[in-house]
Write a structure and sequence with these properties.
The structure is a homodimer of 440-residue chains.
Chain A lengths: L13 E2 L1 H11 L6 E4 L7 E2 L3 E2 L9 E2 L3 E4 L1 H4 L8 E9 L13 E5 L11 E4 L28 E4 L9 E2 L10 E3 L7 H9 L4 E5 L3 E7 L3 E2 L10 E2 L2 H11 L3 E8 L3 H11 L5 E5 L9 H6 L11 E7 L1 E2 L3 E7 L4 E6 L3 H19 L9 E6 L5 E2 L5 E9 L2 E4 L8 H4 L4 E5 L5 E2 L4 E6 L2
Parallel strand pairs in A: 1-19, 7-8, 14-17, 14-18, 15-16, 18-22, 20-25, 23-26
Antiparallel strand pairs in A: 2-13, 3-13, 4-12, 5-11, 6-8, 6-9, 7-10, 19-21, 21-22, 23-29, 24-28, 25-26, 25-27, 27-29
Helix pairs in contact in A: 1-7, 4-7
Amino acid sequence: MSTAAPHSTGRDRLWSVDEHLEDVLTAIRPLEPIELHLLDAQGCVLVEDVTVPVSLPPFDNSSMDGYAVRVADVAGASEEFPAALEVVGDVAAGQAGLLHVGPGQAARIMTGAPLPPGAEAVVPVEWTDGGLGEGPVDAMRARSLAPEGATGHVRVHRPAAARAHVRAQGSDVRAGDRALEAGTVLGPPQIALLAAIGRGTVRVRPRPRVVVLSTGSELVQPGEALADGQIYDSNSFALTAAARDAGAIAYRVGAVADDADTLRSTVEDQLVRADLMVTTGGVSVGAYDVVKEALAHAGDEDEPGSGVEFRKLAMQPGKPQGFGTVGPDHIPLLALPGNPVSSYVSFELFVRPAIRTLMGLTDVHRPTTRATLTADRPLSSPRGRRQFLRGSYADGTVRPVGGAGSHLVAALAHADALIVVPEDAESVEPGAEVEVVLLG
Amino acid sequence: MSTAAPHSTGRDRLWSVDEHLEDVLTAIRPLEPIELHLLDAQGCVLVEDVTVPVSLPPFDNSSMDGYAVRVADVAGASEEFPAALEVVGDVAAGQAGLLHVGPGQAARIMTGAPLPPGAEAVVPVEWTDGGLGEGPVDAMRARSLAPEGATGHVRVHRPAAARAHVRAQGSDVRAGDRALEAGTVLGPPQIALLAAIGRGTVRVRPRPRVVVLSTGSELVQPGEALADGQIYDSNSFALTAAARDAGAIAYRVGAVADDADTLRSTVEDQLVRADLMVTTGGVSVGAYDVVKEALAHAGDEDEPGSGVEFRKLAMQPGKPQGFGTVGPDHIPLLALPGNPVSSYVSFELFVRPAIRTLMGLTDVHRPTTRATLTADRPLSSPRGRRQFLRGSYADGTVRPVGGAGSHLVAALAHADALIVVPEDAESVEPGAEVEVVLLG
């Protein structure tokens, strides 16, 4: 495990938020790329430069339903003096060009169908009598109902310039062009392009598999009855949802009792499906802080490079944190504090960027902005610690939601931003400009 | 199927974009709510007002690892003159309050553990000698390694006010409070709150199941070889990805050949897993436009209320469109044009809002903004049609990406916005302000 240069040393050292984050992100490497089917690659980062193998369109084709004609045959045509052409057949999309359009001839052609040899332009069906011998029509009759439409004669009412209503081969992209660059995130339009150039699979970094487990003998599964001294497990639900939201495939293990052996064996058991592990609780200075007890020296002897380091951060909430790796494959593990607000804020600041780094994204952080504080009274904050208060942001202003207590989960559910009070501030006056992390 | 009041009538009627959208959204109703496990409800809309059944925290508890004491016993305590108290045992989180703290006594207590009867405040372990009889300590020793920490005596170095480091019962939310209102979208913090108040399941509108199928005999699955006149199917991939992106569970059927019977039976076959169906291609004026042929009168006789109406929109790209319902359950179906850009733009304008309406969301549209056009030359647009050009938006300006052709899928993959040229404009000068739909 790498560690950023400490400002102080020893177990009393207080890490800054930035030092801890740098330590985490320095140690975490993007996942190895794999070849995935297009739709499985949605939201993933491309790791190859994709080159166009065959031009798009692959052949000259019609942009309209109409008739493929020779320009000279329709020169000067009008509704009063139409050009009468022999219809030599249909060219539907998906048909190879078996027809040839000679002088005085036309082929009925559908949108996307290849321009047949001999033809130079397409006249839309609305510029013709559709072969019915009367005035202009607004559509062809369905082939299945009126097969005679592919034969007989058509009257064309307007001239067409060479290449009119023809999409030229290669007018979208040309063979050899760069379709997409490595690093592109694959959304629907990028998937459209990859499919269009014939790529059924693509090389991307996969979504990381994140295992979330909460610890605490006081935790009860929601929906069950609470006994004295118990509370409901909310962290494993919140962080599983947040991990998915960040782009991961998240597995919720749920609450593990405060027993170091149980915790150690649960972590080992889950390693097989984890690219990243997240625990909550058990990281502070109490006598039952089993995450610390179970993982602080995990693998020190058997597995070089393994082990989780526990530390104090100059941060509120979220002072106690653990980070390191576990198991023979050195799976990264972030051990977050157990208070619901502490664990959620810690997730946003450290786990979300870790997940996005595993995905190979370069933009790993929540957006931040500056906002004017709207509040009834000054915000107070402990000197030397960076405080993250829950807030509601709109139109350049932010107001606090609920108090600073790290157990206030109701307020968290009504916030959409974190208000950042820097280390050197002990209070912030209403009307002051503050930094805001946008969670939405 | 309801239809908005037409500006003109008959089959030549040209619908505006807004009329078609209104027609679609008027006909589509949010899905019936169901009870889902919390994590299955992520991203869904709550349909019940959720009331807090039991206050949070459910009991007075410690916010620190430390000692639960009586205020009088530690009054005036200092490091020089510590208060020596008898340790009567541990109170760990999850333990019911079996201990009683009498005069001259203290209970060692962990964060989140219930304040035992008799105790009035908590002193952090850092304000004590941790029972070791020496100076201040910075942590407790683990219970498993040092069980004697739960007994003996502790010296307290600082006084504590009544209720110090105690989180009061109900200080987060109180029984009977409104936790969340109907209409709330459930993200991670809302899931945290629901779990914290003990809700294992919640009543929400489910994600709609959207079946996507493309039509066209010219379409080949990406990864296979192209024969003459063939192109790759991109629409079914792009729209499946886009449907997921909008919040749906999307099923890609893939390309169906241009045969009305095959299409009709495929649609009927898929109905069982569809809350919404989307087709591409086959809706224009050609002789092989089988979606129109297969669905225009589907169920007219057997199924009152069924049937898909095909119409022309005053829009570019995306002029031909179909909308209606299919099958005995009147599943809504949007039939989009087949050109890749046309189908994608149509999806964004009509299908995405339909999906989000099915989800019960009120904010169903992509955000729009005004931007200054940056371009080398004026944009031209057909009078009487609303044009949607692909663009790249940044910092209040937008520049066109690629041309207007509805086959230009490469440009689409490099755009993040649609530039809207209104019906009454035939050209837009560089520097003019335009409306922009943000796709990102």
